[in-house]
Amino acid sequence: MFNWLTDFFRVRRDRLRPRAPHIERVAAHNSFALNPPQELQSARVYAGSPWVYIAINRIAEAGALVPLKVYQLAGEKRIGIENHPLETLLGNPNPLTSRFELFEQTIGSLELHGNAYWFLAGDGRGQPREIWLLRPDRVTIVPHEQRIVAGYLYEINGERIPLDAIEVAHFRRWHPDNDFYGLSPIAAARGAVLSDRHMADWNRNTFGQDHGVPAGIVNVKDFISDSDFERLKREWRTHYGGASRRTAFLRGGAIEWQHIGLSHSDLDFLQGRQAQRDEILNIFGIPVGLVSENATEANAKVAERQFIERTLYPKLVRIAQKITQELLPFYGSGLVVEYDDIRPTDAKARLEEIRTAYPLLSVNELRANYFQLPPVAWGEGPVNHRDSHVPLHDETGRGEPLGRPLSATTEEAHKSAIENELAQWERFALNRLERADARPFEVTALPDELAFEVSAGLLFARDRESVKTVFAGARAGL
What we know:
Low-confidence stretches: 386-406
Structural class: alpha+beta
Largest sheet: 3 strands, antiparallel
Distance between the termini: 84 Å
Number of strands: 11
Mean pLDDT: 78
Helix content: 40-55%
Strand order of the largest sheet: 2-1-11
């Protein structure tokens, strides 16, 4: 065998193979079989486990809210396309499903089954006209030796509907033991889910009327007749049976009470359920701080950031890249789909980044990249290209040369305009303090260096006093 391998590798290839040699073996290894490998009773687990339900819903609902945009690639730049046909289709995928429902169900299927399937119905031009989500437990992949996937079978009520590979977009999680199907997180959480369910059932049975294990034994030490024994049982159940739990009072030494049940304290019941909760949530990537009743505000914010950065955003990237690969070729080349980058930014790191980019970027680039402001006619040059008191554009509209020194009257008017705009900006910042939806202030008269310093200072302003301090420093620098 080793001689054969040595002979095979003696000749080195001078070019790449046109096709992977293992594909045919993969298709033969995964020969077609109905009923795809699915985690058993995933839907029942979702409906029966509160922590699985919470974890999947948190991920699916949060992901369905994030905007998705289509961009045209121009070299290294991405140019946004307004109202692209794919965005319109995703906004209204079919008569029964909204955009939110489509992505909620898609992300939920990935978390529940490890797979999600879109069926694409086309129009006369060959482009998708409708998108329908297929139930993963009804879809079977048909392998092909050359095309890898020949198609899909959708089985319902014993009827098998063939679907071409081009008609189906398959989203899947990574599965280490399968070449075609994704792995459900429930497979990893099976032990924790079953333990939590058994503990919940034990708790329910403990307080149920039909509890099968006696809490104690009434032991009659002396021999009594059958009639007395039946009478004793009847009277005991009459006074102490049923759903109510009452204390028994006995007199005499012939009868004793022996407790044989395990209490919640003996079983450490609450700690056990909490441990199962934490394990299930960690498997799905939900920080415990998001659901814990003991989490402080600081812990909750850290947990939310971890959830967005490490759980939600990677899942959105998976979906966006699959849409780019499977759907955008219907609309031409050079297109890409991306979600808005929802990852939180560190204010200090952002300020350092702005300071680093300050001498390298133009005014318009700084406005667009960091402050989401529209470009201005005088913003093509770098920030430090001029003195802050000499505008690059013609303030009067009389066609004066760029960079021309201002007369005393013009300089006084310009300074007055700066002070007025600073006052307007200060009122604007105070009125919109701590508002997440506050729009940026549109700068017209302020020098760009001063506007930069004010904007950077406002990144750290958390109360009215700190806002006023930022503008007081700006006025002192005039």
